[in-house]
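Here we describe the complex-level prediction in full. Unlike the single-chain runs in Section 2.1, the two entities below were treated as one system.
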Amino acid sequence: MSTAAHAGSVGHLAFQPTGDVELQADYVVVGSGSGGSAAAVVLARAGYRVVVVESGPWRDRNDYPHSMLGAMRDMMPDWGGTVAMGDSIMPIVQARGVGGGTVINSAIMVRTPGDVLHDWARDHGLGDVFTERAMGEAHDRVDADLEVAPTPTGPDYGRSNAGLLEMLRSRGFEAHPTARNVHGCVGSGQCLQGCRQGAKRSTNLQWLPEVIERGGLVLSCAPVDRVVLEGGRAVGVRGRFRHPQNRQRGGTFAVRAKRGVLLAASATQTPLLLHRSGVRSAALGRFWRSHPGAACVGVYPEPVDMHHGATQGTASVHFRGGIGPGATLQPGVGIKIESLALPLELVAGRTAGAGRGLVDKLTDARHQALWITAVRAEAEGSCKPGLFGQPNVRYKPTANDRAALLRGLRLLAELHFEHGATAVRPGIYGLPDSIGPDQLHLLETPPRDNRGITWVLSHLFGGAVLGSDPSRSVVGPDLHVRGARGLHVVCASALPTTLGVNPQHTIMAVAQITALRLANAGNPAS
Amino acid sequence: MLRATVRWTLAAVFPSTDRLPGLDRLDTDASLAAFMAAPAVIRAGLLGSTLAFLLCPLLTIGWPLPAFLLPRDALDRHAAAMASSRIYLLRQAMLMLKTVGGVLWGGHPEVRAKLGLPLYGPDPGTFRGDDLRPPRTDAEPPA
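The structure predicted for the assembly as a whole is:
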């Protein structure tokens, strides 16, 4: 049975328990997060019929969960159980569902730094494609579409955000209210669960409805098994519906794409999908990078109530180029600093100790401010298919990465005390659970290895990177996957380097430039 | 039996104190049932960590007994020692228990009320195309 006609009339097709869905499009986009949606809307505006295929379900704001249990169950692949393995186990924060990471992230939007584009041009041969002008124009379009603006520092800014901003500036460091794609944020601190107020301009609210209005279609609950390649050309995708709750396998789907296939399935899934589809490259799954981070908690005499305010309202890139001892500028591994409001459920999990001592520590939950540092790490990892087809991510921060992280945590501890914290919980194995101002020196002795730090990976890059060197890239400067005309990568998987800033804006800009090139070329698959 | 064992273990990690109720006093059956139906990677991690907690008091506090035979104070010392164990995998097992236990404990209305935090509404678990989903007032895609 074919339900193609039905699908074309509604604009969205969710889980189909039985039958075979067959569709035709000009372009099929796999993944509906920042990259996939950004590309899809450009192609739809150019008049092409676009089918977006997303492995997770489409949830609207009334579907969003309130609790972290609901967020893990409904919004994250495998309940957030994806990890990177190296000498330590590092959880990877990702989303699953229509809108991808844009639904559960903190809505931070940072334009691609100029030095990144310079590196891409010099080291990766991408200077003719991702020019400052092209990226600037793409950023402008995205800013206008998604209503990007600095977080207002009014009553809904939040005490934790205000405290970090004040303390960084008191030291003369660069610090700013984050620019975010929100409209009417009331500071509910629930970005991680999806914004039930509808303030976050996630792509399930902003771009995908426009794709549908322009004649496109979104398939949800539809994980793609493989890209169909015929004669070295991508001509579509195939897969089987899967129910998001009970994981029941449903009917099959096949989307035939006349002009091309764009992959935006994330830095953990795109390399695997390429591999399953028969793409072979020495660079596939390699050059996988991240911004590994960790948190430093300050405990204050008065309630901070970090659940009120922008989830991440303050950021600093002062040390993006490197941090030396004593919080000095020193070229090398850089860090970024941000505030982050975590719900009690996650604070409980990352607080040191167990048993009554742990519960006792959590009585001051409302008095805690959580500030984080993430490293623009030099480490390179890989993402290959695992035994059961799952992403097998191997990643190990280097000693330099670890040293930079420790310097960042030490700085945050100092800032907490200067701001009036009575104690700091550094979250580092081997140190006391809680330290006072006279114990800051303890942070100068780094753990021997990565296992002493509670790392979290939230910004992922690579695995199917762009570049001019065939031995070091999967996608050429012509934006086609090598050996597969009409196949393109428009997610973080394509980025050849880390950024040192939040990647969402860069992913959107790269995707839009790729889509614009396809739209302007008229017949890119030829 | 399995679920009761996991519940007992999580309660040892998040026990009641003078000021806050622990998982030994809170009704978290529905939440725990959800975890027990989670994908295999989560279930395997939770069950493996539970097993490690039950079997390793000898490694943490030198008691040659399974955790469920420990007196209350020794059980508490065992939990704390496992969280700061020199053995990385034991620390990771405790991190898994704390993550799951933290989600159950920190989301519970009684705990949130005691701490003065906003209470959570129900998690709908619904999505577009779901037969169980009630009619919506927010934006739907155009027909």
